[in-house]
Design goal:
Number of strands: 0
Number of helices: 7
Structural class: mainly alpha
Order of helices and strands: HHHHHHH
Low-confidence stretches: none
Distance between the termini: 41 Å
Shape: globular
Length: about 170
């Protein structure tokens, strides 16, 4: 347990070496999934009392599905559409690095403090986005942060279209 906590702290501190470490550690996929679960549970607790938020179980399941879909999208975009000569990655590497980029999300539990939900959610979302760009840059072996941002933006747009389509089907 100490290893995952230490890794989460390093991920939240945006240590590039942590993202390289979990990219290479095939045994860290379960830890990355646990980070996603903990981050999702923290968000669910922090959002208690906020209308129209999913429950803890639904939110956690959605976070896990989203994590997997996001990693698949990022893998495809980063390795097929925008690779560099050095790009070499597999889905597991992206699952691990992206999972750990959710580490700052455990602080979303602080959003339970009355009146702070919006500001805490905003700050931590930006923090997690920065961590995700670092995770993507390292997993895809990019030299350019701009290329990693581009992969994330394209992936986000595709993901939003997918979610909108899925919501329309189920509503």
């Amino acid at each position: 347990m100490a290893l995952i906590v230490e890794r989460m702290i390093r991920a939240a501190k945006l240590e590039v070496s942590l993202y390289e470490e979990v990219e290479a550690d095939v045994n860290a996929t379960g830890q990355a999934m646990m980070v996603v679960v903990l981050s999702s549970l923290a968000e669910g607790i922090g959002a208690l009392g906020v209308p129209d938020r999913p429950g803890l179980i639904a939110g956690t399941l959605a976070a896990l599905v989203g994590w997997f879909l996001w990693a698949m999208l990022t893998y495809f975009i980063g390795t097929k559409l925008l690779p560099t000569a050095r790009t070499e990655a597999d889905l597991g590497q992206l699952l691990r690095t992206i999972g750990f980029s959710s580490s700052p999300g455990v602080l979303r539990i602080l959003a339970i403090i009355p009146g702070l939900y919006g500001i805490i959610s905003f700050i931590i979302s930006i923090w997690m986005l920065v961590a995700m760009v670092i995770a993507v840059r390292q997993a895809l072996d990019y030299d350019s942060t701009f290329r990693a941002v581009l992969v994330c933006v394209i992936g986000w747009l595709v993901y939003i279209v997918f979610l909108s389509f899925a919501a329309a089907l189920f509503m």
